[in-house]
Design brief:
Elements lengths: L8 E5 L2 H16 L4 E5 L2 H8 L10 E3 H8 L10 H7 L26 H12 L9 H17 L4 H11 L9 E4 L7 H11 L4 E5 L14 H5 L8 E4 L7 H11 L18 E5 L6 H13 L4 E5 L6 H10 L24 H8 L4 H4 L8 H8 L12 H6 L9 H7 L2 H13 L2 H11 L5 H14 L1 H5 L4 E5 L8 E6 L5 H9 L1 H15 L2 E8 L13
Parallel strand pairs: 1-5, 1-6, 2-3, 2-4, 4-5, 7-11, 8-9, 8-10, 10-11
């Protein structure tokens, strides 16, 4: 079932999460729900396993950092005190996103002076490199960072692993079985912690695929993952893809063979032809790219637009907002720019829909009179002047949530002429007319926020705001583990990455793997876009 702890199981291929879920269930049945601990590289992978309704408690599933954090008594974290650091060290200030994993270090744009040495320091620690070999800037930053943490009794994310390696020799809850997902992206430090814990278990399963190694900038490397070698009888290769069709498999496979360090493995496409096509436009011509994608979107396909760097997605993001095309990135919900319809609290789009409650073409069978709560939702974003009777907003704010707003209540709350105009628009106008009515009356604070949802509603109808968007926008790093019917892949590299590509070696291998991951997100169609200029990737010929 699972490899003995004397040598971990190296799992590669596809169907990984289903396989791991099955192994967790079998282990829980044999050793009990308390005898299994599951860990992963990202929160997303841990969340996916949690969502499989496994027969173990949720505190037995989490990232390695999370397990260490709880085992160390939930210490105060330095990363939660960045504002205080910036006050004390303005010349080494850190950006909020300085620890982002949305793109590789070669592709990152460092916003503040401390971001680059901070990143280098954390990479060196993750790789367990002797400090005497660090770059001077990273060593100097580390000295100040160490002193600040000590003075304020803080631990950073890397401390969690370093202290766990030194002091916690048995995995939390003393499990009999330890299962690790996404191991190819674990750093030397993470794998050292994991292997140390594995020595005190009866079984350890390590799942990963070095072809999909993306987080080299966080300290991982192919050598660390592949060495020491795992005995052949302790390996299980999941060779059948459940995502990638034949045409895309052929292109991706010919591409990944360009890496210099790789363990050969069987990898079969799913039984579907699929297609690899070209788009004669680059990321700098987003309107043309969207026009090219129209046929896929018209067919109801899920479409994913991917690039190596965030800045390459900006023109496309602006174009989709301008046309009211719904998009999101479900793998990076914290990024508001990639999830403009997903906000905390009541969104502006939800307020627009509340205004439309009387319209059957928007609400269908649920159309009807406003409730007190629905009236309050849209009233809060419009100006009271010329619309509401005296103390109208105050009276609406005091209404019970379920109170029905009938014609008599409207007469009490609204000015006569304004109420008639509003009801006429709602009953006789188009959806676009209703949106325009709200926009003319929106408060100054909401003018910007209402632009995009208003365009979505006017151009796409209520479903544009209510349904999960079928368009995903993101960097290749951000969608790792995701998939889409159609993937548009921009081949451009940042200037720094282009330099590394020319030099070859490990850095070039990492870039090849990055593009490979982008290609293999596609279930049906892979669309290779034109480069905007050099440096850009040259795709492997078939």
């Amino acid at each position: 079932m699972i490899a003995p702890s004397t040598g971990s199981l190296d799992l590669r291929g596809t169907g990984k999460t289903t396989y791991l879920s099955r192994q967790v269930s079998m282990a829980a049945e044999k050793f009990g729900p308390e005898g299994v601990l599951v860990t992963s590289f990202t929160r997303a992978a841990a969340a996916e396993l949690v969502g499989r309704d496994l027969p173990i408690s949720r505190d037995r599933i989490g990232t390695l950092h999370a397990h260490c954090y709880r085992a160390l008594g939930n210490p105060k974290l330095a990363e939660e005190q960045i504002k205080e650091w910036n006050k004390e060290q303005p010349l080494l200030a850190l950006s909020v996103a300085s620890t982002s994993v949305d793109e590789g270090v070669l592709d990152q744009t460092f916003g503040n002076a401390g971001d680059e040495p901070y990143g280098e320091m954390q990479r060196m620690r993750a790789r367990m490199v002797d400090r005497r070999l660090w770059k001077p800037a990273a060593a100097s930053f580390a000295a100040k960072w160490d002193a600040w943490r000590k003075e304020n009794e803080l631990m950073d994310f890397t401390d969690l692993l370093e202290v766990a390696l030194r002091d916690i020799h048995v995995a939390p809850h003393n499990p009999s079985v330890l299962i690790c997902d996404e191991a190819q992206d674990f750093s030397a430090l993470q794998l050292s912690v994991l292997r140390g814990w594995g020595r005190h278990t009866q079984y350890m399963l390590v799942a990963g695929d070095e072809d999909q190694l993306l987080y080299d900038f966080a300290g991982c490397s192919v050598d660390v993952f592949l060495k020491p070698a795992v005995p052949e009888d302790h390996k299980r290769v999941l060779s059948q893809s459940f995502r990638v069709p034949r045409a895309i498999h052929a292109r991706a496979n010919s591409w990944i063979l360009k890496v210099t360090v790789r363990e050969p493995k069987e990898y079969l496409p799913r039984d579907c032809d699929g297609e690899v096509v070209t788009c004669p436009h680059s990321w700098e011509k987003p309107e043309h790219v969207l026009a090219h994608a129209d046929r896929y979107m018209a067919e109801g396909k899920r479409v994913m637009f991917l690039a190596a760097c965030s800045y390459m997605l900006e023109p496309l993001r602006r174009a989709m907002r301008a046309t009211g095309l719904p998009f999101h990135n479900p793998y990076r919900r914290a990024r508001g720019d990639w999830n403009p319809l997903l906000v905390k609290g009541t969104s502006t789009g939800a307020r627009l829909l509340a205004f439309m409650k009387p319209r059957a073409d928007v609400w269908g069978e649920y159309a009807g009179e406003w409730s007190g709560e629905q009236l309050r939702h849209w009233i809060e974003i419009v100006r009271a002047e010329g619309l509401l009777a005296r103390n109208g907003k105050t009276r609406i704010a005091r209404m019970a949530a379920e109170e029905i707003v009938d014609i008599y209540k409207l007469a009490e709350l609204f000015l006569p002429g304004a109420a008639e105009e509003m009801l006429k628009v709602l009953t006789e106008g188009t959806v676009a007319d209703c949106v325009a009515w709200v926009q003319r009356r929106v408060t100054a604070a909401k003018e910007k926020a209402i632009e995009y949802p208003a365009k979505v509603l006017a151009n796409r109808g209520a479903s544009g705001l209510l349904d999960t968007p079928k368009v995903v926008l993101g960097t290749i790093h951000s969608v790792k583990g995701g998939e889409s019917d159609v993937v548009y892949l921009f081949p451009d590299l940042s200037r720094a990455a282009g330099t590394e590509w020319t030099r070859g070696g490990e850095a070039r291998d990492n870039i090849i793997r990055q593009m490979y991951v982008g290609m293999t997100r596609a279930r049906e169609s892979l669309v290779l876009c034109e480069p905007s200029a050099k440096p850009a990737m040259l795709y492997a010929p078939l």
